[in-house]
Write a structure and sequence with these properties.
This protein has 7 helices and 10 strands. By secondary structure, the protein is α/β, with parallel strands linked by helices. The strands form 2 sheets. A 6-stranded mixed beta sheet has the order 6-7-8-3-9-10, sandwiched between helices. The protein has a 4-stranded antiparallel beta sheet with strand order 2-1-4-5, covered by helices on one side. The protein binds adenosine-5'-diphosphate (2 copies). It holds the Pfam family ABC_tran.
Length: 224
């Protein structure tokens, strides 16, 4: 369902060309939970941006659900991203003036038609995250772990083809981190395809599969 074929992405810095990604290819079957690991500078963020349709390769192809998204212009890419990809970040990225429920419903603005049933889905997701009593709270009234659970509920609202998580436990204490990882496990157990980027080997070990990047190439793939 995720298919990356010989992806390259170069940056020109001064007179130099850096290959942030250099012939990266892999497939993630539907429902798999994959971790991307590797040292700083190995290309993880570049790959995550590519997977999230925030960036285009210089060469190679990226297919998501059989759609070749690597040829999309910016407008089509953002439309596709808003509907089909859920993001979870290290720093939560919740809007402080909106309630928990309003934050989870934010992706509704990308729907052209009726988003009525999304309200019910938002309630269900927040119940499941143990936040059913917090719907009207502001993010600032929650713990870090609770904020990240709100962010996960928001990322799942549109039933994305792909859930992308970028160091989702990086700002959390170990107890909250364990809760958030358990929640990601549950979401995966429900059939959600998940790709998580981390430099933390313990976090990566929670995934079914680890892809290790080094210098823009796949150094090791536990599924290979
Ligand atoms: P990681 O997320 O694993 O730390 P990155 O994808 O951020 O790795 O970076 C991979 C390589 O590409 C590094 O050498 C980095 O310096 C370079 N790079 C990333 N983004 C840019 C950019 N916007 N401009 C120039 N070089 C970049
Ligand atoms: P964090 O500290 O939580 O990782 P950052 O502010 O560093 O958050 O951003 C993380 C990533 O989010 C960056 O790689 C950036 O390219 C990406 N990003 C920026 N804008 C958007 C957006 N509108 N939707 C999804 N991802 C985005």
């Amino acid at each position: 369902m995720v298919r990356m074929e010989a992806i390259t992405r170069h940056y020109r810095v001064g007179g130099q060309t850096i290959a942030a990604l250099d012939g990266v290819g892999f497939e993630v079957p539907k429902g798999q939970f994959t971790a991307i690991v590797g040292p700083s500078g190995s290309g993880k963020s570049t790959l995550l941006n590519m997977l999230g349709c925030l960036d285009r390769p210089d060469s190679g192809r990226y297919l998501l659900d059989d759609v070749d998204v690597s040829t999309f212009d910016d407008e089509r890419a953002s439309d596709f991203r808003n509907r089909r990809i859920g993001f979870v970040f290290q720093s939560f990225h919740l809007l402080p003036r909106l309630s928990v429920l309003e934050n989870v419903l934010l992706p509704r603005r990308f729907l052209r038609g009726d988003g009525g049933s999304l309200e019910e889905r938002a309630h269900t997701l927040l119940e499941r995250m143990g936040l059913g009593q917090r719907l009207e709270h502001r993010p600032g009234q929650l713990s870090g772990g609770q904020m990240q659970r709100v962010a996960i509920a928001r990322a799942l609202l549109m039933q994305p083809a792909l859930l992308l998580a970028d160091e989702p436990t990086g700002n959390l204490d170990s107890k909250s981190a364990a809760d958030v990882l358990a929640l990601i496990d549950e979401v995966h157990a429900d059939g959600q395809t998940v790709v998580l980027v981390t430099h933390d080997a313990d976090v990566a070990a929670r995934a079914q599969r680890q892809i290790t990047l080094r210098d823009g190439r796949i150094e090791h793939d536990s599924a290979a």
